[in-house]
Amino acid sequence: MEQPSTLTPLTGAVRELASNVVSALESGGHSRLSAGPAVTTGDDDLGLAAVRVLGADVLLPSVLHGAPPAPVDLAVCEKAVLAHPPGPDASVTSRWTHWAMTRTLRRLGAPAAGTPPGDADPDAAWLDDLPWQALTHQLSLLAPLAVPDADSAVARAAAGRTLDIARGFVRAVRRRGWLQAAGAGRWLALLDDVPETLGLDAGLEFVTLMGGDDPRVALHLHAARLLRPASLGAP
Prior knowledge:
Blueprint (H helix, E strand, L loop, with lengths): L8 H18 L18 H10 L5 H6 L5 H13 L8 H16 L24 H10 L11 H7 L2 H13 L3 H13 L9 H12 L3 H13 L8
């Protein structure tokens, strides 16, 4: 975990926004996410960049709880999509996080101005050939796509490699990579056929104990709990 003295302004803004998301998840999705000083109504460049980094998870409370998002939150996210589109040389991961954000905006009734409604999924074939270590790393970066009724090429690729993701989760825990472990655990909470021998519930509780003070880790863990309500208790 970063010490306060080592945080960049953007990292600090992302962590603050993630804390707001966690609070909204805990309250049932009724908190206004943009209420924090780092994320304003969209005129703050740092706030917009933080929204773009956190991506679709900014709106996760509405996706998981079904509570209508505050109009100001939708406006902030739309401004972030328009202000920070992936460039010609953007990584595939960046393209996917942009796609997830625009798809989530449409799901919640916002047009995501400037993005054609018929946009196809970016390519995900590259995931099929990744070693399990690299797969886990990439999926942890794409954890905002791990949501109920996920319909994307990334989700389909993850569903075909459950055992590899389980191996990656164990590796991340052993290496004390709490953010990667939380992201992988979120995918496993969504997927079928997770081996019982993994002990996912206990593993997620351990990650909470060791790394849950990082709001980005806590966000993924809250998502995992909500995806596995029968097996994980309230935080």
